[in-house]
Amino acid sequence: MNVKVLLFCLLPAAPVLAQGFAGLGTDAEGFAVPERGRALQFPRDHGAHPDYRIEWWYLTATLQDADGRDYGAQWTLFRSALAPGESEGWDSPQVWMGHAGLTTPDTHFSAERFARGGIGQADVAAAPFAARIDDWHMTSTAPDGADAYSALQIAARDADFGYDLRLEANGPLVLHGQDGYSVKSAAGQASYYYSQPFYSVTGTLDLPGGPVAVTGQGWLDREWSSQPLASDQTGWDWFSIVLEDGHRLMGFQLRGRQTFTAGTWITPQGQATALPDGALSFTPQGTAQVAGRDIPVRWQIDWPEQGLSLQTAPVNPQSWMDLTVSYWEGPIRVTGSHDGRGYLEMTGY
Amino acid sequence: MSLLALKDIHKSFASAEGPVAVLQGVSLAVQAGEVVALTGESGSGKSTLLHIAAGLEPVDAGQVLFGTQDMAALPDAGRAQLRRGTVGLVFQQFNLVPSLSVGANLAFQARLAGKHDAAFCTDLAARLGLADLLSRYPEQLSGGQQQRVAIGRALAARPEVLLADEPTGNLDEATGDAVFALMLELARAQGTGLLLVTHSARLAGQCDHAIHLRNGRLA
Amino acid sequence: MTLQALLSHWARNKMQLAMLLAGLTLATALWSGVQALNAQARGAYATAAALVSTDGAARLESPSGQLPQALFVELRRAGVLVSPVAEGRFIMGDTRVTLLGIEPLTAPPGTAAALADGDLQGFLSGGGYAHPETVAQIGASDMALTPSQAVPVGTVLVDIGTAQTALGMADQISHLMLTGPAPDAMPEGLRMAQADAGAELDGLTDSFHLNLTAFGALAFAVGLFIVHSAVGLAFEQRRGLFRTLRSLGVPLRSLTLALALELALMALIAGLAGLGLGYVMAAALLPDVAATLRGLYGAPVPGSLQFSPVWALAGLAMAFAGAGLAGGQALWRLWHMPVLAPAQPRAWAIASGRAMRWQVVGALALGALAFVLGVFGSGLFAGFALLAAALLAAALLTPAALALCLRMAARLARAPVVQWFWADSRQNLPRLSLALMALMLALAANIGVGTMVASFRATFIGWLDQRLVAEMTVTPRDAAQARELEAFLTSRVDAVLPLRRVDATLAGQPGAVYAMRDHATFRDNWPLIQAAADSWDRLAGEQGALINEQLARRAGLWPGDRVALPGAGDVAILGVYPDYGNPLAQAIVTEDWFDRLYPDTPTRQLAIRTDDPDATRAALLDEFGLTAQAITDQAQAKALSLAIFERTFLITGALNVLTLSVAALALFATLVTLSGLRLVQLAPLWAMGLTVRQLAGLELARALVLAGLTMVLALPVGLMLAQVLLAVINVQAFGWRLPLQIFPADWARLAFWAGLAMLAASAWPAWRLWRGGGEPLLRVFAYER
Ligand SMILES: Nc1ncnc2c1ncn2[C@@H]1O[C@H](COP(=O)(O)OP(=O)(O)O)[C@@H](O)[C@H]1O
Ligand SMILES: [Mg+2]
């Protein structure tokens, strides 16, 4: 077994992405725990929270080139702590993992980076904001006084692909759940969770065939916690959707003994409505053989109260992040009561 | 007093069917200059008797006397000394030293016994028809030639007693007769006692007397 | 049916069978044992290599040794995939280990495998992984150690942070492993070292393994002599049986097939037994071999043997090949035998006059080949080929030479028994010749290797005395402590001589440049093999460098030539110094120049000259607060060096003894199988008045005389062998050439052992003859009717 899997899966602080989720429901020993009612503060909370077990900066972008061809890009930095707190040098308990994905209709690229905290190979600074691991970075290009996330540059690169994207936010930050306190199970596990779903994106993809100029829309998720899942929860299906009328929908279901759903309905102006457990329903519509398993790549999403009925289809059904920690993550097209585009992440299959 | 006397010799060999008595009370004596022929069927014990006389084979009972010297009383070294100086032996086969030339074989026992006489040796070789073969090696000789070397070697040492086991068995009749005659002549001239195993009644007839071995006893 | 008839022969000749099997078993055992040792060592190099690099991946290092950790971060941030390593020697518990600090998240997959099953959190918080043998060696220690077969012996694998703390290398790393593509432009102060540790070890230890293999082959050859003689004799003795079988209508083809089958059966049995024995032998020798490899090359070889099926198959194949080689002649002769060949066992080597002439011709041809190789050949392989040709030539010449000696002795002899003794010995020579050739080979190998080792030892001890003049050496924890130590000591002792070095490629070879302070200690004592005029003054004047013998010989560089030093360009070679026990190239420049060429190179050791080592030691311990482990005194260093030296040749000694034993067994086998034939030859003498005791004594004497003569013949061959080993093989394998010295006492000892071996080999047949009285001899006559 790979040492990195060991580090990321077997340690109590392994990320939610890991399959099996062994040990994730345990109590947060010494770690800070999300509390209802604690107000998020920016720019402080854009930075890292080393007292919490896990945290991520998760950017997805649905992109098109001049010919209208669909692409998707993903840039993620995970933080996982072996113990709460930060210290200098090799003693630092912080471990970092970077994931980069790039999807075209016929190919899916993925790459990963690992780093120890404390030595400068990877870190996240709140102000001026920069998240880095090796030469991958997500850096704020926002003018002074503006929110750090209002303008970003992200870049990642591996042997056979890379991208460099500029993002401009056309709307405010959106807090999920109750002012950013997002419940993750009926038993009350929760995380802090907010997003910037209003990016317009321009940039360049480096593909084996050469550079491709793209434009599109991006969505940044920020989440941190110490006890995100209940012990019986085996995986999740998570959607971020930008509808053509300017509305956004974030919705997910956590699969377990009892399925737990949650979501946020966001108006074009950034007004957020939290959707409680059971408001949304997610129904698999068709599976594909991906990396030797059956994965539901087509979904039906219903929000009966609002008369919302969406069908999703992947740009590339083989959007498999074939990494030390592996999962499905890729751009989708949305049709039905509303048309749109989005990103889908599925774990635990 | 006889040169060699065997008294009441008993000898048996172990076999699969228990001990086989080969000699059952054989007594004989050979005097100086006397030629005794020993005859008997194949397997009657002639060779055994000769081996006993030479001190090669121990006896079960009985005495072997050289003059007054009792063989049984001698240590191994003493018996060897006796074989070296007193007794001459001629076997049917296997009797030459393969690593020595004919000349060296002829002189070997004489030199061992300290009785080497080069002139006598040369003469002997000539009379045995070996003069041209002196530098050859035993393996290069025919059976008859080897036999003559063996006889020559025993004679060259001028032993007091010469024990010969079918010495002419490998020789054609004419050569055999000649060699036999030479042995008789030398034995008589040197006062050697000669005990001689032969199948030939004709040759036995030429001896001073002949004894016949049958069923372990002298007939 | 035919096979059954053939096999019945062995039931009646159990001893012969035993010898045949023993010969083949021993040959297989020695060969496969040596192969097992080699395989084990090579496997260990691979483990070591896998731990510190991805398949042959390059590493980035600084010529001056350490790198700042910041450079690692800088490179990663520039997108260069590298992983940091901090390593160093470290005393743990009862032993000294290599502390290998890695960063598990960026390390190549091989490293991860070493950590696969264990407590990772423990690893990151200060735990270590080590080979079970190393764990045992360390005994009690503060570090939590997890046993792992994937870690090379003598290494403790720890997290880089743990290593930095333990080794006093805060924020410093030893080198970087490149885990992705090489950077487009090499960063300042870095260079790429292409070869990984495994390949380097492979190169360095190749000669050692070739040595072992040569020994194994020699032993195998000696073993085959036994098999050949046993098979040949059995063939001769069964001529009658073959004739009978054939006249009964058994086709030649089935008869040959049956004989081949019989041979194969023996090969199978002996091969399996040989494998077992070889395994046991290898397991017994491995600790010494491992110690040698560790001492000489720093190669991490565990001392416990692992079983490999490939090795077993190869060993069996060797047994079959050996049996085929030894029995091929018999099969060939059977194939060509007329139906009514004489059944009489025509003493089988008797057609020996011609055989011996052919042997002489062969010997001359091989001698010529050896000469050509000696004059024109180059390289280790040519060296061994030369040895093989010369040894084989000497072996082939042995019977003829012995025959000549015996003939001359027979000329001089007067007494008939003495004359017979020589003549008989000569006549039996062909039957013994194979065994005597084996003895000759074993003795020559013993003399040659013994002389080489003894010459080496004598030179080595003298050299150690010269080189280890410093009363003590101190190993500082880090550069800062080195500076403090130097300041502390300067007023207290006669001289403090710092040792600094940077790794460098010299004339294309891996090596290092050392700094040497201009001091009388070196001028007066440092031995030089060749020196330019005023070499020390010119060294002090920064006009050139000294290089070690390894570099001089391998690159053909001598005073008057120039060698490129990193950063200094081509510099004049001022002298060549012997440097035994070190496989790498070296150059020495004066300290000031060194510091300008390679600034900030840390001091690794300080050599101390003092009249009062005890007081200095006490001051270092009590006032300075150094740990006792950091101080090595002269006697300790000498003892350590000598111990390494002795261990290096322990395996050689063991193989020597084994080879001699095999030769003794060959003699024993031959003498036993010949004893029946001997009876026929001895019986007439017994009848003519020699006692059995005399005859038995003569048999023993003959064996001793033959052993003695063989020993005398082996002497010049052995010396030639020693000369080749010292002047060709050593130069090629290790890079140093040593003067041949002569140790007659060793020869006497060897002669004694050879005599004893010969006595042992001839004792049993002689004893049987003696104990039997005249009985067995008489039976020779009893067959005549
Ligand atoms: N060493 C011995 N062991 C067993 N039997 C023997 C031995 N020597 C001779 N015999 C037996 O003794 C008998 C007499 O043999 P031998 O004296 O050779 O007879 P001859 O010479 O009269 O032909 C034979 O039956 C022979 O088989
Ligand atoms: Mg008879």
TrEMBL record, chain A:
Membrane-crossing segments per the record: none
SUPFAM superfamilies: AttH-like (SSF159245)
Domain AttH: 54-226
Signal peptide: 1-18
Domain of life: Bacteria
Entry keyword Cell wall biogenesis/degradation: no
Pfam families in UniProt: CrtC, Lipocalin_9
Keywords: Signal
Keyword Signal: yes
Official protein name in the record: AttH domain-containing protein
Top-level taxonomy: Bacteria, Pseudomonadati, Pseudomonadota, Alphaproteobacteria, Rhodobacterales
Automatic annotation (TrEMBL), chain B:
Listed PANTHER family: IMPORT ATP-BINDING PROTEIN, TRANSPORTER, PUTATIVE-RELATED
Keywords for the protein's UniProt record, in alphabetical order: ATP-binding, Nucleotide-binding, Transport
SUPFAM superfamilies listed in its UniProt record: P-loop containing nucleoside triphosphate hydrolases
GO cellular component, one term: plasma membrane
ABC transporter domain: residues covered: 4-219
Organism whose genome encodes this protein: Roseinatronobacter ekhonensis
UniProt superkingdom: Bacteria
Name of this chain's protein: Putative ABC transporter ATP-binding protein
InterPro entries: AAA+_ATPase, ABC_transporter-like_ATP-bd, ABC_transporter-like_CS, ABC_transpr_LolD-like, MacB-like_ATP-bd, P-loop_NTPase
One Pfam assignment: ABC_tran
Any one GO MF annotation of this record: ATP hydrolysis activity
UniProtKB/TrEMBL annotation, chain C:
UniProt keyword list: Cell membrane, Membrane, Transmembrane, Transmembrane helix
Family matches, as InterPro entries: ABC3_permease_C (IPR003838), MacB_PCD (IPR025857), Membrane_comp_ABC_pdt (IPR038766)
Gene Ontology CC: plasma membrane
Chief place of localization: membrane
Transmembrane parts of this sequence: 214-235, 255-286, 310-335, 356-376, 382-406, 434-456, 657-680, 700-730, 750-770
Domain MacB-like periplasmic core positions: 434-619
Record's subcellular location: Cell membrane
Highest taxon above the source species: Bacteria
Domain ABC3 transporter permease C-terminal: 214-334
Membrane topology: Multi-pass membrane protein
Protein name: ABC3 transporter permease protein domain-containing protein
